[in-house]
Please model this.
Amino acid sequence: MNGNIQIVKGHILFTKSPEAFTIIENGYIVVEGPCIQYVGESLPIEYEDYHITDYGDTLIIPGFVDTHVHGPQYCNRGLGMDMELLPWLNTYTFPEEEKFKDTAYANMVYTSFVNDLVRNGTTRAVIYGTVHLQGTVELMKAVADAKICAYVGKVNMDQNSPEYLLEDSNQSIVDTMQAILVAEQFEPYVRPIITPRFAPTCSGPLMRELGRLAKKYNLPVQSHLSENRGEIDWVASLFPKSKDYTSVYVDYHLIGTQPCIMAHCIHLSDDEIDILAQTNTLVAHCPYSNNNLSSGIAPIRKLLERGVPISLGSDISGGHLTSMARVLTEAIGLSKMKWAEVDKEYKPLTLSEGFYGATRGGGQFFGNVGSFEIGYEFDALVIDDSSLFDMNVRSPLERLERWLYIGDDRQIANRYCRGQQLSI
Model:
């Protein structure tokens, strides 16, 4: 018998596409090492002698993927929620991030932050660190210790930033290269990602060098785009030679050369949407943050219809919750408000579309992740919703919807990433 084989049984729910759930009641998933070998209603004869972990009447769903989250802002959750983006950054975010020059502080915060991700069912994340190299290494350690998978980026900022966070441009590149090399120590859990904070805090020469690094090391890129109207006007004044905000990143080879995630993307022109679609840039939609910081409601249906791939992000601490279950239901809710009050042309998101965004939509950035298809890595949550009082018999899909809206981490009975059971 192959000792790398494990089999789980339960009510299996996942989304191969945004349009619909695949549901297999009392089904089986066969996993070999990190990857899925079989999914179905009955167990093939070649696996009949293997041990089966029978989860009974529970729900088995893919682990959540958070494609935009700031680890160093974890202690700031719930603060400054009556401010807009730029005052919020200066009042709360930047002073907190300064503290991460202290590696002991970074270790304590990042350990708690990553544990919270795991507790709430996030098995993959794309995370911003700070400008501090050693502090970012502590974030990598925390991810690897928890045995989840994450892209971790050392942030770059060499202009329009507080003095205590302002980097020398050359040193920023040197430290970024070192972070790329250090990340190799934490494989397969950690991968590096090029992380210019956003265009206003990065000079043209720095962004140009970051674009070269991304190409040289074949690395993805993450940043922010069109979150706030004041921010957009600021970018226009700083980069007058670029056609628009999106074009700033294109001009410096940060969009269109390597895989890229851009967070928010609320106030885009049609030309900018075309660029994102043509370059397959993944938009990280962050509904809680967009709401809390009065940034606006992202036109997610319009982006989808124009061919832009969509994922979801908690955006801690612009967003106040690490729970991607809550993030996906908020995304659905905001899309309803967009439809009801702003634009009747674009229908609200459905449950399957929201769920897809929180699983396979973001998982695609990691490869075959976020679904229970053959060849996909086995990231999973086992949901025991028996504690959610209900006098009625519900279908597995109704039970999942109910848990997403009214449940929490207490109903997550087990967690897996890459076929490994996680502990919290």
